[in-house]
Design brief:
- The chain is α/β, with parallel strands linked by helices.
- The protein folds into 3 domains: about 10-80, Arc Repressor Mutant, subunit A (Orthogonal Bundle), CATH 1.10.10; about 90-165 and about 280-299, Periplasmic binding protein-like II (D-Maltodextrin-Binding Protein, domain 2); about 170-275, D-Maltodextrin-Binding Protein, domain 2 (3-Layer(aba) Sandwich), CATH 3.40.190.10.
- The protein has 10 helices and 11 strands.
- The protein has helices at about 10-20, 25-30, 35-50, 65-90, 110-120, 135-145, 205-215, 230-240, 250, 285-299, and strands at about 55, 60-65, 95-105, 125-130, 150-155, 160-175, 195-200, 225, 245, 260-265, 270-280.
- The strands form 2 sheets. Strands 3, 4, 5, 6, 7, 8, 9, 10 and 11 form a 9-stranded mixed β-sheet that branches. It has a two-stranded antiparallel sheet with strand order 1-2.
- A hairpin with a 4-residue loop joins strand 1 and strand 2 (about 60-65).
- Helix 1 packs across helix 2 (about 25-30) and helix 1 packs across helix 3.
- The termini are far apart.
- The model has no long low-confidence stretch (mean pLDDT about 85).
Length: about 300
């Protein structure tokens, strides 16, 4: 019987890296190998299976239709290979070994400084690698196996995941001191001047949560009224450029300190977002993630 030759994990890793980077040099750098090594590995893979996966020109790297399908399959194979190690770690001590966690920008600077010292103290064998990125990018990395879990705000469609809600993060209306006289029970959404409402740019789920809480379809932020971060928006409000909606965790963390910006509750029907930890459904490290969620919820 003729020998059967199978692609190696390394070859599949090179192929996926090239698809993600779209450039041989950048792909090689991400794999910590030389460009010639990566190129040779992909050529060996093509020779092994007898088809061309990548069309090479001087300026463009273009995957063939079959190449795209094989990349999708390779991602699943690599994810399964990673989970072999996860299974071994899960059988050992809880919350130990490496874990990659993505955190969205409207959570990371306000929640992590409180949580990380406790994690380092109580679980010294845990090597937590953090990446701050918007919800869409974080969920894509989770789906492709490039991150293990995501700390994000719900509701948000993140694919086939398990989720543990940690707590509700209420929303506040923020404005320059003296600009309005807020009622005792907070600001009603119908009292918001939509022409002066500052929101985060597209890609940040807090924008959608804020609009949903207001429940006013006519509110749409103009391009000139978008901010890249909550800190930037607070500075814009402090300079009299408008008003905004902030999560309680940012207010509690002191984002308004040193400014003339004040915040009061948003008196809406559902004035909150849910902070949650999510991971791929069926992950062998589910017990670790649930334990981590408990630590995060207590923090």
């Amino acid at each position: 019987m003729a020998a059967t030759y199978l692609p190696t994990i390394k070859q599949l890793h090179y192929l996926v890296a090239l698809r993600d980077a779209g450039h041989f040099g950048r792909a090689a750098a991400s794999c910590f190998v030389t460009q010639s090594t990566l190129s040779a590995g992909i050529r060996e893979l093509e020779t092994l299976i007898g088809v061309t996966l990548v069309e090479r020109t001087r300026r463009v790297v273009r995957f063939t239709p079959l190449g795209e399908r094989i990349v999708d399959k390779a991602r699943r194979v690599l994810r399964e290979a990673d989970e072999l190690g996860d299974m071994a770690r899960a059988a050992g001590r809880p919350l130990s070994g490496e874990m990659r966690m993505s955190v969205i920008p409207t959570i990371a600077p306000f929640m992590l400084p409180r949580i990380l010292p406790r994690l380092r103290r109580d679980y010294p064998d845990l090597k937590l690698y953090l990446r701050e990125e918007p919800s869409a990018a974080a969920c894509e990395r989770l789906s492709h196996g490039r991150t293990d879990c995501v700390l994000l705000a719900l509701p948000y469609a993140c694919g086939d995941v398990e989720a543990v809600t940690l707590f509700a993060d209420t929303l506040h209306f923020a404005f320059q001191r003296g600009e309005i006289d807020p009622p005792t029970r907070g600001i009603r959404p119908d009292a918001i001047d939509e022409t002066r409402l500052l929101l985060l740019e597209d890609g940040h789920c807090l924008k959608d949560h804020a609009l949903a809480a207001c429940n006013r379809p006519e509110i749409r932020a103009e391009p000139t009224m978008l901010g890249t971060s909550l800190h930037t928006i607070v500075q814009m409000v402090d300079n009299g450029l408008g008003m905004t909606i902030l999560p309680a965790m940012a207010v509690d963390a002191g984002i308004l300190e040193g400014t003339q910006v004040v915040a009061c509750p948003l008196a809406a029907d559902d004035p909150a977002r849910d902070i949650a930890l999510v991971w791929r459904r069926g992950s062998p490290r589910e017990k670790d993630f649930r334990l981590l969620a408990g630590v995060l919820a207590e923090g």
